[in-house]
Request: fold
Amino acid sequence: MLGRAPTALVLCGGGARGAYQVGVLQGIAEICSHDFNFEIITGVSAGGINAASMAGHRGNLAEASNNLAAAWQRLSINQVFSTRFGKLSWSVLRWLWMVATGRCSVHARGLLDTRPLGRFLTRALNFEGVSHNLAQGRLRALALSTTCYRTGHTVTFVQGQPKILAWKRARRRAELGPIGVAHVMASAALPLLFPAIRVGAGFYGDGSIRQTSPLAPAIHLGARRILAISVRYPTTAKPAAEPALQHPPPAQVLGMMMHSMFLDALENDAERLQRINRTLSALPAHVQTPDRLQRMQLLVLRPSRDLGGLAKGMERHLPRTLRLITRGLGSTRSPSDFLSYLMFEPTYLQRLIDLGKADALRQRERIRRFLQGRVSDTGTARFRRPDFKLPHTGPLQADEKTT
Reply:
């Protein structure tokens, strides 16, 4: 397995939107040959949960993705954080008291209690399977990105083959060693909402906070072909006209902040990789590439529908206390982007899984060509832009790039 350049799977964050990645993986499993597998799997936040599940399953890609889908289908919001009225109310009141008095309580470790998620992941994830797949040569490495609150650096925890080396760059580094529930919880610990997680001698939070290069871990681990699954729907360049000028409610601002943290980094990194593609392609054949840069194949898959829009009208499924909080933030007067990140409810999650699978199957030939290495070697990107007249029925968006 280490004798050839492997294929990497990169899974970004997105809270409840991570269910969309599960459907895409199920579709990819139907497209690929029975023995295909991703040798490098990296993830962050909800994508880190999906990455750990896929890397730890001992079966083939279809079995692993079906197992992951079953876990998401069992999930509900009270298995992510405590939804008891008294628990949520007391947490909110304690934070308000700290703001009003200027006194920080040592017990204020997050607005939400995520111990239910820790118990759910303990049952759902198989970390012995990660070691087994590494020993069998089916897996080269699993990498989960987090944010170290002490240094502010992005720390990527890597469990991999013996030949895997750590790396260190500006504001980001890798640490080698066994991965467990604490690493997964840390990668998905939304700042302020979820408590920081202790790993070793430090406290860590969601890896999306400061991660500027989500594709970098896969490249450091030796990938030459990367398939990345985004949960961002490509929007029009010209926004729709608002009926009247009004100040955006807090829920809309929070939704934009979530987009910035979870979605923008992958898009920016893909564009940066494309520029490197073009630069390398412009060099004469006899010129040695600088800084050991090499040609890379990248396929970014995106949803054909706005995942925030799919959450519209589903606020009623939230627990009463959380529903009151989100309404107080103006969720009823803004797009459903903020809610979509917290909507860990079966109806919404199943919609995302179904959409992801349908999107992947609609791109059957494109995905098959990419995974077989039959993509353009011109160093240019071919973008398939969405049909904005029919934004809810267009094909899954994909970028094919060769570097």
Notes: Confidence is low (pLDDT under 50) at residues 376-395. Residues 264-282 form the longest helix (19 residues). The two ends are 22 Å apart (CA to CA).
